[in-house]
Amino acid sequence: MSETLERVSQEIENLRNDMVETLVELIKIPAISPNYGYEGEYDKAQKLLEIIKDWPFDKVEVYNAPDERAKNGVRPNILAYYYGENGEESPRLWILTHLDVVPPGDPSKWTVTEPFKPVVKEGKVYGRGSEDNGQSLVASLYAVRAMMNLGIRPKRTIVLAFVSDEETGSKYGIEWLMKEHPELFKENDLVLVPDGGNEDGTFIEVAEKSILWFRVKVRGKQVHASMPDKGLNAHRVALDYAYHLDKLLHERYSEKDELFDPPESTFEPTMVNGPADSPNIAPGEHEIVFDCRILPKYSIDEILSDAEKLAEEVKVKYSKEIGGEVLPEINVEVIQRLDAPEPTDPNSEIVKLLQTALKELRRKDAKVGGIGGGTFAAYFRKLGIPAVVWATLDEMAHQPNEYAKIDNMVEDAKVMAALALL
Question: Partners of 32 in the beta sheet?
């Protein structure tokens, strides 16, 4: 290990308590999307700006994506620059984390603490957003803070990006930034997205599946359950459709690619909704949502076409005229779509740099692969900018009793520093 990297690593160790304190302060502030009825990321962004206001960043910029549903009508995105040894001419390393978190879910399942009342216990920080994405956000901050404290300028300019809306599609986050401010991004940038990984930090994600979320809405005719012939039970139609769609998709798109884990496309029914609130009502409406993670070789358009064709077949099967109207209606509505870009080359500079850093600091060989989840990296890959997803995680994201392991946060900060120094 180089002397400089050793000094920076030791300084990061010295900052361990500060890192824990910062993570605790950030967890206290819910930053949940207006999609779920919350106010968004404004308060958390303000807290972060307050924390770093006296840090010697060379430049801090705030880009507010307008969203009238959010507090003060904006979804904030923060970029903090720490220039490399050649100033603004230095090559650049982006480290991107997200401010938003998912809703806490069933409060009764939080047995260690309440979601937004963080506690430190047995080397872990518990609370919603602690691991996803607070652990990496704080790690990136203190990787830079350590260099600042030592007066060290890295080989590469570090651009810390703290963005909004990752959990619900990035429309007000990285996607908005790339659309409205394309001048921020350069082809020779290197990009780390520390928002996925494994328990020992040996997995580097270079590829993602396509993502498709769609809602199926079925409309029949509500009626008393004792007289089903007088109406059309939307539940029955929807269940029939969902069963056959699930079967069709798994059979038709069944090939595997061992680059990914899991290696096959996945098609998961996840959410259902129907207005019947009594056992003796045959409901007239039913909704079901599918979450699909699709191997890049397959076309999302073809999958949607299959869903539409099956809808027509099921409509014919149950067709019935009621009150001058032919029912059922079955509509397929896309909620989110992200077509997978070309993977990052496993031999690209950012991959090799990360593998070198892990070898230097941990004496471990890291493997490359693909995942089913969607991250910021896909947006950079679409621009032809190589990006990797990596972190050391216990994979507690979105779960009750979510926690960040303090050792992971500290050790990952050292790797982030190494990427800028090596």
Answer: 101
Q: Is the dihedral of CA 371, 376, 381, 385 positive or negative?
A: negative
How buried is residue 203: exposed, middle or buried, by Cβ count under 10 Å (0-12/13-18/19+)?
buried
Q: Is the pTM of this model over 0.85?
A: no
In DSSP terms, 82 is beta-bridged to: 158
| pLDDT score, position 276 | 82
Inter-helix orientation angle 300-318/234-252, to 10°: 140
Residue 167 Cα distances to 46, 238, 358, 365, 417, angstroms: 19, 28, 28, 30, 26
Picking from 320, 241, 224, 238, the residue whose alpha carbon sits closest to that of residue 276 is 224
Task: Say how far apart CA 282 and CA 220 lie, in whole Å.
Answer: 10
With a pLDDT cut of 70, the percent of the chain lying above it is: 100
- Rounding to the nearest 10 degrees, give the CA dihedral for residues 149, 196, 131, 382: 70
Confidence label for 1 from pLDDT (cuts 50, 70 and 90)? low
Chain-centroid distance of CA 398 in Å reads 10
Catalytic: 166? Answer: yes
pLDDT number for residue 376? 85
The catalytically annotated residue of 11, 166, 175, 287 is 166
Point out the catalytic residue in the list 11, 67, 100, 208: 100
Query: 3.10.20.30, 3.40.630.10, 3.30.465.10, 3.40.50.300: which CATH number matches 3-208+340-421?
Result: 3.40.630.10
Positive or negative CA dihedral for 383, 397, 170, 295?
A: positive
* Residue 109 DSSP label: G
SS3 279: coil
pLDDT single digits (tens) 322-355? 999 999 999 999 998 989 998 999 999 999 999 9
**Architecture in CATH for domain 210-338:** 2-Layer Sandwich (3.30)
Give the pair of three-digit tokens for residue 120.
């430190």
Domain borders along the chain are 3-208+340-421, 210-338
Three-state secondary structure readout of 237-248: HHHHHHHHHHHH
Indicate if the pLDDT at residue 387 is higher than 80.
yes
